Every structure is written in structure tokens, then in C-alpha cells.
Amino acid sequence: MKKITILLLTLFVSFMFTACNSNSMVFSEMKGICNDIEKNFDKYTVEEFEKLTEQFSELEKKLEAKELTSEEKKELAKIKGRYYGVFTKGAIKSTKEEIKKFTEGLGSVVEGFIEGVK
């Protein structure tokens, strides 16, 4: 009986370690996506963003399907916040660049418009 108890306890501890380790790997993947977007935002196509968003969502669902500790819940919330922040920062930067390009050519547009209505 003692051997069975020790065996079951060993299996339980192994399972718990694997589960925690698995969560850590998912957190690392999510952080990696955030880092990648932060470094390469301006190089991605819309399709690539959609793929990254899908990957991030799948990882998020994996974690939310498990029973997370309060610390893991905080970590997940922090990573999600960072993801949305990085994504928003990149979108703002991209929009600013597009507005700058537009305003640089605006003088010519106005000039052409005025010539067109004369």
C-alpha cells in the first residue's frame, strides 16, 4: 500500500510539474508574439497580423481552458494588456506615417484641384 501511495504521489507531482511547465511555455510563446510584433510591426502584412492574432488567441484559449492560479491569471492579463498595447502602438505609428505621407502630397493635391476648377 505504501508503494502505491508513493507511486501515485510521484505521478501527481509529475503531472503538476508538467502542467505548470506547459503553462510557462504558453506564456513564453505569447510574450514572443508580443516581442515580435513590437520589433517588426511595420514589416507585417495584414494577413500576417491576422495570423499572429489567431495564434495569440489560440494560446489564450489554451490557458483559459485550464484552472489557473491567481498569479497565472495576473500574468495572462498582463500579457494580454501588453499585446493590445504593442498592437495599438504599432497601429498609431503606422497611421501617423500614412498621415505624414498624405499631408506631404496635400499641397500638390490642392494645387491640382485649383487648376481643375479654373
Overview of the structural elements:
By secondary structure, this protein is mainly α. About 90% of the residues lie in helices and about 0% in strands. The protein has helices at about 1-40, 45-65, 70-115. The longest helix is centred in the C-terminal third of the chain and has 48 residues, at about 70-115. The protein is rod-shaped, with a radius of gyration of 25 Å. The model is unreliable at about 5-20 (pLDDT under 50).
| Helix percentage | over 70%
Distance from N terminus to C terminus (CA atoms, Å) equals: 100 Å
Global geometry: rod-shaped
Residue windows where pLDDT falls under 50 for at least 5 positions: 7-20
Beta strands, count: 0
Strands, helices and their partners?
Layout: H1 2-40, H2 46-64, H3 70-117
Helix pairs in contact: 1-2, 1-3
Question: Could you give a short description of this structure?
Answer:
The protein has helices spanning 2-40, 46-64, 70-117.
Structural descriptors:
118 residues
